[in-house]
Structures
1.
Amino acid sequence: MKFENYARPQSFEEALKLLKEEKSSRIVGGSTFLRLSKKPVKLAIDLIDLNLDYIKETDDEIFIGAYTSLYDLETNPIIKNNFGDLFEKALKHIVGVQFRNVATIGGSVYGRYGFSDVITALAVLDCKVDLIEHGLMDFNQFILEGKYKDIIKQIIIKKNNPKTSYQMLRKSDADFPTLTCAVSKTDSIKIVIGSRPKTALHALKTEEFLIDKELNEENIMQAAKLVKEELDFGDDIRSSQAYKEQVVQVLVKRALMEVK
């Protein structure tokens, strides 16, 4: 990918103005997936001067700046203390440490890639996307509604002490996942399946089925079957739809057993 011009705005307002004024513009951070496109870009907008590389907390919430690397998310003690090994399991197989040191959470979320492990993990948490123009938006709403001509400032996650599990299948370490599954348990249970190969999606009917139910073997088996029936899966270069339908049941069973 080629950039004709490069800008380092000094404020959010300037960054958004540049993005809006030039139709063929792109926010760049780690820029790890830009090579997937051959489309020329007239303006590369780098937010490096806006101090968006942070993970901090209050009594109720965790704030993750858009320029925070995936490796920082994977290893940060604040994240580990609140969500256990959810992000470590989700991120440690992504290519390599060098890659995860430059890939950012903002780019990963904004790209809405179907293969994104980080989206699958975030989707089971109570979190919001903080955008410059649109303000706070529910994370899953942002993922489902499509791309906005806007800029992510940070991800905000509510502290509600969830039990979490992350399960996935890869053909080899560092390969894109064949299928991903994240589960969280608080007063209710959230189940998200990614790399279907479409964008990660909640199994809403299955979540409803599990309300007020004990996570015993019978209910877990039924929930795994329901996930296969309610979500759609497709063929891709890594596996067939039929294979994914079998694998998802195994991943859901393992995840629910882990949070019971």
2.
Amino acid sequence: MIITAGLDVGSTYTKCVIQNEEGAILAKVVEPTGFRLREVARQVYNEALESAGLDESDVTYVIATGAGRHQVDFKDIHVTDLTASARGACFLFPGTRTILDIGGQTMKASRVDEKAQVQSFRLNDKCAAGTGAFLEKTARYMGYTTVEIGALMTTSKDPVPISGVCAVFAESEVINHLSIGTPPADIMQGAMESLTGRSVQLMKRVRAEPEYTLIGGILRFETMGKSVSKALEAEVNVPDPEMVQFVAALGCAILGRRRLEKLAKEKDKEAVPA
């Protein structure tokens, strides 16, 4: 049986997905990346192997992606996160044509064709105010944990605008709102809507077209998907909350199977007598 693994060594979290040749996910694991990228990649991979009940020798091919992909010393090859995310998103939602990926430190928009090939892409260029890290920092400043963000925003009644294009300036706005007694829920929702505005602008720069698929850790919060959908005035695809962080790692596992199929065909051609 062919078993492939995908590793996404992101700036905030490292994810691993192990998949069999039928496309079933045998294991998925996520851990904070920290600063020892080589070690966390190995740790997450070993945890995934244990979860799937596999030995390392059972895995046929490993592909890595993400900011730390070059640090994965047991990979077969590496690919860009845009390529990996496109494969993963189109596997989950075959009609996908535009992908918005909001991670802890980056936000990316890309337009893909019917073969999941990236046609155009843009990255955020407005500091951390355009990433999930800003939302997490805003929550911590107000005394809330990351896991409390979703529930907090559902209680918002009158969101306040957060217009700063830099995380430092945006944080100053948060402080000012708190000083005048603005409810934390309204500040949090305002920060989310600010992020939505930046994400939609990024999508416009790649000439976004439906279907729209949203991925990345920040999409664990249901409010984000609804906010982007409202801004686009269109339906959007969002993976299950338990899967939304793993799309790039999943894409790597899928690409691993494709790579093996290609190598097998090339070998068969070489075996045919002239």
3.
Amino acid sequence: MKIDLHCHSHFSDGQLTIPELINRAHNMQVDVLAITDHDTVTGIPVAQAYQRQQKRPLTIIPGIELSTSWHGFDIHVIGLNVDIDDELFQQRLAQQAQSRLERAVLIGEKLEKAGIPDMFAKAQAIAGVGQVTRAHFARAMVREAVVDDMDKAFKKYLGKDKRAHVKPVWITIDEAVAWIQQAGGQAVLAHPGHYDLSAKWLRRLIEYFKQAGGDGMEVIHSHLSPQAKQQMAAYANEYQLLGSSGSDFHFPNRWTELGKNLSLPDNVMPIWHDWNMAALAAQSRVVN
């Protein structure tokens, strides 16, 4: 079974529409897919409705990737199998959406002062139905030939301590875990191998996440060396966290692909070990 529990659509900073994302998952023969857009679950019912019209089975897991702050670092927490209709959860996500919008407006104002006008409107146009993120600003800056590529947009303007950086006001890790679990889901520490942390600080993060009540961590995610994968597996076992795996797919490229190379090591208990796959599949049942 091919399982991918981390990907993004155009409802956040992914570039594919929901139908395009689902079709790509079919082409890559993915069996279970969690759609985990940043701080929003808007795409989930769209995905479920689209999949019900498809001939090939695909189990859609309702997911989210919540943005949090921890010791000055932006840390992401995945929620899996969340109840997207939970009223309190929806109210809390509206709070996150407002924080994102306010930050985007401030980024636009800073770019304006740097001599780059109308970037908020242009980023918003690129975002479309999704929330405006720094990635949308970067894409707008590339489109307007302000920079050559997205990486330069972050290095010169949007990255930490750069000219248009705005410190986010995110929730805490504890709040993210609580929000997810109170909405019936499982909380997973996203891509721990990608944070710019020393081994000592990474251990502190994983330990803190465990003490906050977190359920699992991504043992397998994109751009990890074989040695790093072994280390993530060791951390999961040491801190008694379930293992998850996800591509963190945003758009087609040569580095990440839906469902590719995501098998967990045999010595790690998977986050899905006690999931009722039949019941989850029924939510995405095939309609002939």
4.
Amino acid sequence: MTDEADEFTFEAELADELEDEAEADAEEAAGTTVESLGLPMPALPVDEALALLAGGELELIGRLWVSSNNALLGVVRGDGVEAAVIHKPVIGERPLSDFPTGTLARREVASFAASQATGWGIVPPTVLRDGPVGEGMLQLWIRTDPEVDPVDLVNASDPRLRRIAVFDAAVNNTDRKAGHLLPVPGGHIYGVDHGVTFSPVPKLRTVLWGWRGEPFADEEAAVLRRLRARLDDDLGAALRELLERIEVRATARRLDGLLASGVFPQPDPRRPALPWPPV
């Protein structure tokens, strides 16, 4: 009995020790930023960034501990240019019950293609390529404005977020959190983490409900029409290389529905409206 009690005490103490170490590691990681590591974050034109991402030499530096998937921090180098990047290899994707296994990286790239078609530049340059641990998405790291809190932007329904709300409705984003919004110096706001998009089932989950039921502005409606037209052309061809055909067809129907209604979508009372956690 004494041995069993001693063993239980030892296991409990070991568990506490491991928990303390994990908390210390998390605190240390939380204080480490790309800036503090001194990694390069150049402002590159999209074409140059895509060429660098696709053809540069990729060096992985570490893992982003806050990511639910195996998101890796790295540097890509080529032609005298280097830039910090985020790499999400397919092998590190966490299986989900409502998305096919091994498809999240391709959805990230598909979201970039859709973003480019809008002309709004919402998603940072993103490519699909091989890396040290296999195929995955590679995305340019974005230098954010430390003076701007994305949560404040959401709470204030900042007008700059309307475009992202329109984009999310178009690609059926199921995970638009405040932490996935990247305000940068100069006022532009990027959106990242688009691995759970383009489901054929309507499941928009977002913190950007501030304009629900409001009519689209003329520019917003024009962008939706452009997306729909390009689905029958180059955008559709690009998406069919990355997604299932049913998902591309569902995107066309979704755009048709948005254009027919002329308003921002409302939450579906039969489904969760917010991602969790929302930040």
